[in-house]
Design brief:
Rossmann fold, 2 domains, 44% helix
Amino acid sequence: MGNLKLTPRLKIIADSVKGFDTLADIGSDHAYIPIYTVRNGWVKSAVATDVNSGPAEISRERIRNYELESRICVRQGNGLQVLNSGEAEVIIIAGMGGILIRDILDKGAKVAESAKVLILQPMRDSEKVRAWLFEHGFEIIDEELVRDQGKIYEVIWSKPGGEARDAKRPLFIGDRLIEKKHPLLAEFISRRINELEKVMVALEDANSDKCRERAEECKAMLVYYREVAEWVR
C-alpha cells in the first residue's frame, strides 16, 4: 500500500500523538489516524472504534491492507464503552458535534479520566465540550484552529487531574486561542458573526417562545464574539 495522506484536520491531530504508546480513535472514520500513527511509529498500538458495522468493517479491511492487524484492533460499539479503563493513553474523538462528544465523555467518564490526553475536535458547539471538561476536572492544555477545504476547525487537547469547576463565563472560544491570538482566530470569529447575523435575520418575524429564546441566545453570542474580535485585531 502507498503512503496514507491525511487531511489537515486529521493531520494536526495525528501529529500530536508522538511519544505515547497507545491510542483509541472513537468513531474512527476508516481508521485513518490509527493506521497513519502506527505506520509512522508514533504509537505502538491503537484501537479504532465505530458504532456501526459498515464503517467498522471498512476499517478492518483497510488495516488488513496495511498488514497492521497485530497492532490495530477494531471494535464496534458505542463511544468509550468499548474501552477498558487505562487501555488508551490518548483518546481521540473527532469529527462529531460538540453535544455528541459531550455525551460520549459523560457516559464514559471513568475511561476518559484514565487517559493521559484527550484530543477532541468538535464540528460545532465546542462550548459544550469545554463546559464538560471544566465541570469534570479536566485541564485544557492547548487549542488550535486548522483550515481544511475552506472551513476552519477547532481542536482541543485536554488532560484529567484538575479541579472540577463551573464555567462562569462564555466558552464559545477557547482561552488558549485568545491568549496566543491565533492567526486564524479573527477569520474564525468573523465567520461565526456572519452565521449568527443570518440566523438573527431569519428569526426576526418568528413569534414562538422557542424562536425568541434562540434570538436572545444569538444576541448574547454576537456581543461576545464582537468583544473578542476587537481584542484580537
